[in-house]
Structures are given as structure tokens and as C-alpha cells.
Amino acid sequence: MIKKVLLLFLVSLSGVISAQDSTYVNLKNPHATLYTHLYYLQSDSYEPEKSAKSILPKATKDPVKTAVRLKKILDGKGLFIDFNTVPRNPNYTDTTQVAKPHKYIPFPLRMPTIYVEKVDNKWYYSLETIQNVDRLYEEVYPWYIEKLQNILPQFDNKKIFGIEYWQLMGLILLFALSYLVFFVIKKIAFFVLLKIQYSIIHVKNIGINKVLKKLAHPISLLMALLLIDKVFPSLQFSLTVNKWFFLAINIAETIFWIYIFLKLVDVMMKIYSEFTERTHNKLDDQLVPILRNLLTGLVLFLGGLKLLTLFGVNPTTVIAGVSIGGLALALASQDTVRNLIGTIMIFLDKPFHIGDWIETGEVVGTVEEVGFRSTRVRAADTSIYQIPNSKLAEIVINNKGLRLYRRYNTSLGIRYDTPPVLIEAFVKGVRELVIAHPETRSESYNVEFTGFGDSALLIMVNVYFKSLEWGTEQSSKHRLHMAIVKLAKVLGVEFAFPSTTVQIEQFPEKKSIDMKYNTVQEDIDAAVAKIIQEFHDKPFKLDDERDGN
Asked: Domain holding 367: CATH number?
């Protein structure tokens, strides 16, 4: 009797142990939990009750249904878990998570709401994941798929090229609808872009319109791809098909986004160039190509980073590598970095504009171009100076192009034996010439008999030219000088030059060499009036004189 009882106890105990073994699953780490969930839903190891153990206890009334739907969501989105990258550490910590550090997100970019977390020394799918399962399932497998399957009941399980008939019909309808969306969105996008462009610059620009037309094309293609990306999972292809299809779709979407942003850069630069053409500041014109290159490089960099993430490269690793490489490059090219900073400071402070005449150190000339690294200055002898922008940002710059007027000061030396009446007439005539000159400020000038030089009587001429252009200033000087020379000639006033006069008063039969001046007031007034009238009647043209020479 005792033996029978003992035997019955051992049989019962072994049944309990075998029953426990049959339901035991490993949930000690993220790798084990994810593997348990997916392994027991495969066709050759289908045990949904064991797969449901990965669901947080008491989080749902039907954990089996939740586990099955969760797998279908991953399959429909083509999200393939690479178990070689899943951590096996029971105490795995995500350093980017502050509130819940002990959690693992398999797809942080595409499915951030699906993740496992540690609860009481075991890893389960989180409560947030379970709460989002039904919503995600309805997005991946919407109601119209069931309708489509009901339309073709006679073709159930019939396939062509491995594709069921209802799936093939769904593909045809999807691509037809996508083409329709592409055609309609292209028209709408171009119309909207034209309205936005016109509201910004209030001018129709053919060049901008062409760029907008090119921009509308990828936008419409992107909308069509987004529709395909949204609907394709509901066609319930296999995980392998979905994985490669969505990889291709994501690559195409990324390329289209890159193209769109590149065209947006072109549009923004064309609009900005429209504004710069309306301003007198030519430095803004130089900023257009610099900004275009900078924004284009930024778009290509971010687009390349996105493409790398699609192929499984961790973006954090890429950014860290770029940061380290950038630091090393910066250390190796400190001069280039300093020049780039100097370029930024020049565009922010605007110490000069394109075309300004500047004096900085030993360099004097006209600013022709401001680049990323250096500024090009053309000297008066047409030679070119390339000045590093880092130096320009530090040294003193005398910008004569920012003057309100260009001041010109000179002294006219006339002979000592010039009669006072002619001196007065000459000074008055020069004043009249300054007032009559179209390029001088008639309200601000000085023409005065200021002193006695070593060999001449000094007459100061201080005038202000209106034009800030160096070439215009020189031609204006030329015109004023020619009028002054003509005035002196008709008055009989001669300009002095350094000389020494020896006067011998008692030398026999020698006469004085005194100049003969006409001091008749009527003649003086007539001569001055004649020169002033000629100055008015015959405008000076520098180009005509050069051609004549």
C-alpha cells in the first residue's frame, strides 16, 4: 500500500514538473523576452500561450491576442529584429532614458512606442506598448482590406507568382491611386508654391517659377510614396518582402526629401537675391553663394546621416564619430576655422561693402569679393590682394566707402607779384566754379587765401564730392582742375613754382622783369563770367577726352 502511494506521488510530481517545464519561458533580459515572443509565434513552433508570457501580466484581458497582433504589426511594417544586436544583460540600462532607464526600444525611429522594460527582475512588453497595440494594428490593417478580401472570395488561397489574387488586386489599386494622388498633388503644390512666392516678393519671377515647378514634382512623388507606405502593410505580405520593400521606400523617401530641401535652398536663395538686388549693399550679394553652399552642405550631410540609419547604422555613433572627426579636423586646420569665424564676423558687422575703397595696414584698394576664407582687394594699380578674413576681423579698417562725401583738399600757389585785385578775382572765380560743379557740395566748401609760402601765395581749396566712387572722384577733380587752369589763364594769373629771384637794381641799361597784369575791373569780371559760362555750357566728359587723346 505504501509503495502504491509513493509511486502515485512520484508520477504526480513528475507531471507537475513536466507541466511547469512546458510553460516555462525565459524573460531574464531583453533578448530573451523578444525571442520568446517571436519564436513561439512561428509556424513550426507555434505556441501563442508561451509567446503571451512576454506581455506584462494583468495589462490586458487577452494577452494571446495582444501578442499575435504585436507580431503582425512588426511583420506588416517590415521591422526585422536582429537578435545579434539585442542586449542580453539582465540589468541593461538605456542612458538616454531618465524616467525609465531599464528599457529597450528595438526600433527607436520607426516604432518608439514598442519596447520592453524591466519589472520585478523580468523583462516584459511595457504597458504603453500594450495600450498602443490595437491602434497600431488598425493602422497597419485597416477595414478596407477585409472588404477587398470579401470582393474576391472565389480566389481565396489562389496565387500567381507567389502573390494571392486579392493582394495583386490591392497592389494594382494602390499604384493606380498613388498615380492619381501624384498628378493632383503636383498641380496643387505648384499653385500653392506660386502663391507663397508671390506673397513674399510680390513679383513674378520666371527663374523662381522654374525652380518651383521642379520642386512640385518631388513633393507630389513624396506624397504618393507616403500613401504607399501607409497602405502597403495592410496587404499582408511576408516579413521578408515587407522588410526589403520598406527599405526601398524609405531610401526613396529620403532621396526625395533631400531633393526637396535642395530645391528649397535654391528658391530661398533666389528670393534672397531678389531682395539683395534692391539694396545698395553689395556685400549681401556675396552672401548668397556662401549661404547656398553652406545650406546645401547641411542638407546633404543630414540626408546622408538619414541614409546611414536606414542601413542599420546607429545615428548616435555617426554623430559621435563626426564630432570627433570634426574636432580633429578643427585642430588640424585652426587657420581655416579662424578665417571662417572672421567671415561670419564680417557679414555680421559689415565693416565694408563690395566696391568700397578701404585702407587696412599696407593694403589700399577696392573690395571686390568676400569669400569663405579671404577677402579680395584690388589696388589702384589693378594688382590683387588676398587678405585672410581672420586678420580683417582684428585689424583697423579705414573704410572710405562709408564716408558721406569724399573730401578733397589742395593748395594753389600763385606768383608773389600777383596784384591783390587779381588774387581776389581768382579766389572768387574758383568759388563760383565749385558752386557750379555738379559733383561738389555747393553748401560746404572753402576757397581762401590762407598764407605765404616759400615761393608762392597759397590759396586753399577744400571741397566735398558727392559720389563715393573713386573713379568718379578722379574725373570730378579733373573737371575742376581744368576749369581752374582756364580761369587762371584768362585772368593772367600764373602759378608759381619753387624758384629763386635775384634782383640787381643798379646794373646799367637793364630793365625790370616785372609781369604785366591787366587789372581793369571790367576785363576781370568779363573773364571770370566767360569761364563760368563755359563751365555751365560745356559738360565735362572724361570718356570723350580719352577717346580724343
From this structure: 2.30.30.60
Secondary element (H or E) of residue 360: strand 357-360
Half-sphere exposure of 476 (CA within 13 A, CB side): 22
Neighbours of 265 (CB within 10 A): 19
Q: What is the C-alpha to C-alpha distance for residues 8 and 195, in angstroms, rounded to an integer?
A: 88
Determine whether 249 is exposed, middle or buried from the number of CB atoms within 10 Å of its CB (0-12, 13-18, 19+): middle
**pLDDT, tens digit (0-9, with 9 covering 90-100), for 435-461:** 988 888 888 899 999 999 888 999 999
State pLDDT tens for residues 73-122. Answer: 888 888 888 888 899 999 898 877 777 788 898 888 778 889 999 998 89
Confidence (pTM): 0.47
CA 440 to centroid of chain Cα atoms: 43
Domain that includes residue 328, residue range: 159-332
170 vs 121, higher pLDDT: 121
Spatial contact of 355 and 282, defined as CB atoms under 8 Å apart: yes
Are 419 and 437 found together in one domain? Answer: yes
Distance between CA 400 and CA 397 in Å, rounded?
9
Cα–chain center distance at 49: 56
CA dihedral 314, 26, 46, 70 (to 10 degrees): -50
Number of structural domains, the chain?
Answer: 4
| 491 in a structural domain | yes
Q: What are phi and psi of 369, to 5 degrees?
A: -155, 145
CA distance to 295, 358, 455, 535, per residue, from 416 (Å): 70, 40, 7, 28
Q: Indicate whether 328 and 366 sit together in one domain.
A: no
- Quick one: 221 and 300 in the same domain? yes
**Residue 8 grid cell:** 502515485
Sign of the C-alpha dihedral, residues 350, 354, 358, 364?
positive
List all residues 6 or more positions away from 40 whose beta carbon is below 8 Å from its beta carbon. 25, 46, 47, 48, 49, 50, 51
Euclidean distance between CA atoms 52 and 29, whole angstroms: 16
| Contact indicator for 465, 439 with CB cutoff of 8 Å | yes
Cα end-to-end span (Å), the chain: 142
Would you tell me the crossing angle of helices 143-151 and 165-201 to the nearest 10 degrees?
Answer: 140
Question: Cα–chain-centroid distance for residue 437?
Answer: 47
Partner residues linked to 464 by β-bridges? 407
What type of residue is 84?
N
Q: Could you give the 3-state DSSP secondary structure of residue 448?
A: strand
Question: Under a CB-based contact definition with an 8 Å cutoff, are residues 39 and 65 in contact?
Answer: no
